[in-house]
Design goal:
With 221 residues, the chain is α/β, with parallel strands linked by helices. The protein is built from eight helices and seven strands. A four-stranded mixed beta sheet has the order 4-6-5-7.
Amino acid sequence: MPCLNEEKTIKKCINEAKKFLSENRINGEILIVDNGSTDKSLKLIKKSKVRLINCPDKGYGNALRYGINNSYGKYIIMGDSDASYDFYHLNDFIKYLEEDYDLVMGNRFKGKIDKGAMPFLNRYIGNPILSKFGKIMFPCNINDFHSGLRAFKKDKIIDLNLKSTGMEFASEMVIECVKNKYKTIEVPINLMNNGLNRKPHLRPFRDGLRHVKLIMKLKFK
């Protein structure tokens, strides 16, 4: 889980992940990658007795790459630590990894999106248009390019040598998996309203433009 000032939600995410691992008898680690938190997040993480590492470079993509490279597991389930995703119902992700899929993507639009969980423009314009554009450039079975909940084989993703530093990392992973003919599949997931009033880390126009630039670059390089 990447973390940047998530003191209100990090404990809930960790507890859900612990419960999932325990009840399903999975030998796994819970790895939190802090990206410069200045609130009480670090204190809460340390109290939870899970593994914490600090990414020295700012940015969503940087934090995720750092976490992937420093994780211990064969499989990785990646999810944001803002309590918008359900870390307790992850069985489908494990199931498909064990069936030899390389990337298992959570699709928010095939599941349930709580009222207020995703801004109107993101839900009906931004995410659908960007994902459709990505599919036009790189035909595939993925329909939610920007889902923050996904699972993959660690070694296969490291082999892609992903480079994005920001939110566009989400699209880069999907596109490179498609280009390299990795075995991919989607599963429905729910997006929950976490009730946070803080300013979101995502900046729709700026980050949307970065996604478009990345897709064009990867298509025509």
